Amino acid sequence: MGMRARDTDMADGLRNDRRDGLQPATVAVLDVGKTNVKLNAVTASGTILETLSIPNPVLPDGPWRHHDLDALGDWVFDNLAGLAKRHPLTTFVSSGHGSGGVLVGPDPDAGDGTALPMIDYEQPLPDDIRMRYSALSGSFFDKGSAMMHGATHHARQMFWMQQAEPQGFSRARWFLGVPQYWAWRLSGVAVSEATVLGAQSHLWNVVERRWSPIVHSQRWRDLLPPFAKAWATVGTIRPVLSDRYGLPAGIKVLAGIHDSSANFYRYQAAGFDEATVVSTGTWIVALSGKTPLDRLNEHRGMTCNSDVNGNPIGGILTMGGREFTHVAGDDDHLNADAALVSRMITQGTMALPSFGDDDGLFPGRAGEGHIAGPPPADAAGRKALAVLYTALLTVECLDALGSGGRVILDGSFLRDPLYAGLVAALRPQGDTVSNLDTYGVASGTALLASHGTRSARAAIALEKPPVFQHPSADLAAYTRHWRDKASQATYFSTIYERSSQ
Question: Is the pTM of this model over 0.90?
Answer without folding.
Answer: no
